[in-house]
Design brief:
Keywords: Carboxypeptidase, Disulfide bond, Hydrolase, Metal-binding, Metalloprotease, Protease, Signal, Zinc. It holds the Pfam family Peptidase_M14. Its cofactor is Zn(2+). There is one protein chain. By secondary structure, the chain is α/β, with parallel strands linked by helices. It folds into 2 domains: 78 residues, Alpha-Beta Plaits, CATH 3.30.70; 311 residues, 3-Layer(aba) Sandwich (Aminopeptidase). Helices cover 36% and strands 17% of the residues. The chain has an 8-stranded mixed sheet with strand order 5-6-8-7-9-12-10-11, with helices on both faces. Strands 2-3-1-4 form a 4-stranded antiparallel sheet, with helices on one face. Helix 10 links the parallel strand 10 and strand 11. Helix 6 packs across helix 13. Bound molecules: zinc ion.
Length: 427
């Protein structure tokens, strides 16, 4: 009886978890020009739509629309002759399916405490931090765990320094890889964990990327937001900063609009927006941590890779569309990374494309990618991982655990190609 009750209880908790998304629909819309982009963007706050991806080239924009505003949203699209289709009529169905798949994957995959982590599902904050501590204590000659500061809600922000020379050989270039600046982009975590695993276990095809390069790997750049996506709201993107609005009706800053690089130019001053840029550049503790890493190691850091989702793209600055001065060389590095990923990607995902972020995607400001350029990192990129989809329709931010290994492996091939590019130029 007790078991039955606790089963019912946990079942209802899971349901309650995604209740707020019951009846929300995922739209695919075909945007024809910049006026239509502007029109859709202006609907964000009043209709509480959540723009998951913008359309670029032949891809459609993907937008989550709350149940209560479905009709009004469709009215606006119809009146403006914007073509659309409803891709998922109730997103909660897919969220429950993701939970089911993750729970299934979790059975029999308890962590063994041997400084290894599986690529069979998405691990939560506690599991990842435990793993980082195990790696640091198991490989003391190679790995240093750095507690870089506290998040808004007081969680530790932890990263690893991986080096055969304890970071003391200042002639070595550094490659800096970061994920989960945006909390809901779960699929970006396995690649950084995979990079750690490859580097520390020495399971490398090219040992020189470890001998000749020092690595900084920050797997969870936004710990409050990430934890929130696990326990409360799966589609949370920003950090969890409060105090921006009376009664905190809306909270959170888009950390990837909060860096001091053209801050405020192409972002929102409205805290209810998903691209709210904060009170001023570096108003948020999480972006400050990344800034301080770049300031401390900027002169040695030759490549920065900020991993996001989704769209199969490798992007470079500046976010406003002006090309970085060494754009030709940056583009070449991007191509090498894209080619490496495309060679091992799944057949159903499109090839990666490479380009300036504003030209390929949209104008944006306050980006971590651009701040790395400000901090003298010559090769700075955003990865947008593939917009995968499983047979049940799980797509974009939702993750099918069966695909985690593939995404980790193929993204690592890109990171590795980037590291080889750095090695060939700087060592
Ligand atoms: Zn992102």
């Amino acid at each position: 009886m007790f078991l039955y009750l606790s089963f019912l209880l946990s079942f209802s908790l899971v349901l309650a978890k995604h209740e707020m998304y019951d009846g929300h629909s995922l739209f695919e819309i075909k945007i024809q020009d910049v006026n239509q982009i502007e029109l859709v963007r202006n609907l964000e706050v009043p209709l509480q739509i959540d723009i998951w991806t913008y359309s670029q080239m032949d891809k459609k924009a993907v937008i989550l629309v709350p149940k209560k505003n479905l009709e009004q949203f469709q009215d606006v699209l119809n009146r403006n002759d914007i073509q659309y289709n409803v891709d998922v009529d109730n997103i909660k169905r897919l969220m429950d399916e993701e939970d089911r798949l993750m729970d299934e994957a979790k059975k029999g995959s308890e962590r063994s405490g041997t400084a290894r982590i599986g690529f069979d599902r998405i691990y939560n904050l506690t599991e990842v931090y435990t793993y980082l501590e195990e790696v640091a204590s198991s490989y003391p000659d190679l790995v240093t765990l750095v507690n870089a500061g506290k998040s808004f809600e007081g969680r530790d922000i932890k990263y690893l320094k991986i080096s055969t020379t304890n970071f003391e050989d200042t002639s070595k270039p550094i490659v800096f890889v970061e994920s989960l600046l945006h909390a809901r982009e779960w699929v970006t975590l396995p690649p950084t964990l995979y990079a750690i695993d490859k580097l520390v276990t020495g399971n490398l095809t090219e040992r020189s990327v470890l001998d000749k390069i020092d690595w900084i790997i920050l797997p969870i750049a936004n710990p409050d937001g990430y934890e929130f996506t696990h326990v409360q709201n799966r589609f949370w993107r920003k950090n969890r900063a409060t105090g921006y609005m009376i009664n905190d009706i809306c909270v959170g800053v888009d950390l990837n609009r909060n860096f001091d690089a053209n801050w405020g130019a192409f972002s929102s001053s409205n805290v209810c927006s998903e691209i709210f840029h904060g009170r001023y550049a570096f108003s948020e503790p999480e972006s400050k941590v990344v800034r301080d890493i770049l300031r401390t190691y900027g002169n040695r850091t030759k490549m920065f890779m900020d991993i996001h989702s989704a769209g199969s793209m490798i992007l470079y600055g500046w976010g406003n569309g002006v090309l970085v001065p060494n754009a030709l060389s940056v583009h070449t590095a991007g191509i090498q990374m894209a080619v490496a990923i495309n060679a091992v990607k799944t057949s159903w995902n499109p090839n990666y494309i490479v380009g300036n972020s504003a030209l390929v995607l949209y104008q944006a400001s306050g980006l971590a990618m651009d701040y790395a350029t400000v901090a003298d990192v010559p090769y700075s990129f955003v990865y947008e991982l593939p917009q995968h989809r499983n047979s049940a329709g799980i797509t974009i931010f939702l993750v099918d655990p069966a695909l985690v290994q593939q995404f980790a492996m193929e993204t690592w091939e890109g990171i590795l190609a980037g590291a080889k590019f750095v090695r060939d130029i700087y060592t």
